[in-house]
Specification:
Blueprint lengths: L4 H4 L2 H12 L30 H15 L4 H6 L11 H5 L4 H12 L6 E7 L2 E7 L8 H20 L7 E3 L8 H8 L3 E2 L5 E6 H4 L6 E2 L2 E2 L15 H11 L7 H8 L3 H10 L4 H19 L4 H7 L5 H12 L3 H9 L4
Parallel strand pairs: 3-4
Antiparallel strand pairs: 1-2, 2-5, 3-5, 6-7
Helix pairs in contact: 10-13, 11-12, 14-15
């Protein structure tokens, strides 16, 4: 049977493929994933990426059926490489803390069909909850187990801390394999709870991220390096390109990124005869044009990369910037000259 990697290329399946291969699974022996039906090219289409959550669920379901292991999600989640986050990775790792990164991953998931990640505070506790799209589906439990374990692995890798959760809350009743949950999460696990969640201490969410993890920089992620105290206009533009996915992009965030004070950065912009908001708009407009012409990303994906709440917000901004819709711009760019 042919190798499936081209079919499954993408954020979550890429993680999953790595974990399966590390465990010695022959991925090519699994049946091909179903074709995506999201081939619409309309302007308002916020279609899922080529490697959709449905494809990842299909692969997980196939492995679940092949192994018959009810705890396969725990096994996979603890072995997935969090540096293969794909589209969600760069904006997540550009944030200053674990909590910010998880919020950005949650925002990205809202653009896709599938499970939802929700964060909330309860006193000194930070709850990271999974809201399954199909709570009673046969493969929902291993999928949620995998998602919770992989979030913990992400936190440990990119904070370089042991990161022990306060507890894990699960909707299922206590199964015969309950000790495998305790081993996977290394914390108390409560069964028969109202929701599926991993609970951190409030201080855990404030832990700073270290983008350079393990033996080298994570694939497709930002690498923070020491910068000179001076910040040229080109430095500011480069920072804006890197931080464009932050909805709350601010002068303060760019100043921190460049290791200069806000006052110094403001003076540099004034001396150059420009302003922070203008540079932000310019950076997002340029990146939008690049994303529309260099690939087949959906409007939802582009909106996420540029820090918009949804595809419609990006659609309106792009038309304001260029006088064209994103679809018209993409078609014009694809048209042969002459």
């Amino acid at each position: 049977m042919p190798q499936q990697e081209p079919i499954l290329a993408g954020p979550l399946p890429r993680d999953l493929l790595h974990a399966l291969r590390e465990g010695g699974y022959d991925v090519s022996a699994l049946a091909p994933a179903p074709e995506s039906d999201s081939d619409s090219d309309t302007d308002h289409d916020a279609a899922v990426p080529a490697a959709s959550p449905q494809q990842a669920c299909y692969l997980l379901g196939a492995v679940y059926q092949a192994t018959g292991d009810p705890a396969i999600g725990l096994w996979l989640g603890s072995r997935m490489r969090p540096d293969l986050l794909g589209l969600a990775g760069l904006p997540a790792l550009a944030g200053p803390s674990l909590g910010t990164a998880l919020r950005r991953i949650a925002r990205y998931q809202k653009l896709l069909a599938g499970d939802r990640l929700e964060l909330r505070r309860q006193g000194d506790e930070a709850w990271v909850c999974i809201r399954p799209s199909e709570p009673e589906a046969p493969d929902t439990r291993p999928r949620i187990d995998m998602e919770l374990c992989s979030l913990l692995a992400f936190g440990r890798q990119f904070t370089r801390k042991p990161l022990h959760p306060l507890r894990v809350s699960l909707r299922i009743g206590q199964p015969a394999w309950h000790l495998r949950y305790t081993e996977a999460f290394d914390c108390p696990v409560r069964f028969g709870e109202p929701e599926d969640a991993i609970v951190f201490g409030r201080r855990d969410m404030a832990l700073r991220l270290v983008a350079r993890a393990h033996s080298g920089p994570a694939a497709g992620t930002a690498t923070r390096e020491a910068r000179p105290s001076a910040a040229s206009l080109d430095d500011v533009r480069a920072a804006l390109y890197q931080l464009a996915g932050d909805r709350a992009l601010s002068l303060a965030a760019v100043a921190r990124h460049l290791d200069v004070s806000e006052r110094t950065l403001q003076r540099r912009l004034m001396a150059a005869g420009t302003g922070f908001r203008t540079l932000c708009e310019d950076a997002r407009r340029e990146l939008a044009g690049r994303y529309l012409t260099e690939g087949a990303m959906s409007l939802g994906e582009i909106a996420f990369r540029l820090g918009f709440d949804d595809a419609n917000s990006f659609f309106r901004a792009f038309r304001r910037w260029t006088g064209m819709t994103p679809g018209d711009y993409r078609r014009a760019a694809a048209r042969p000259p002459g």
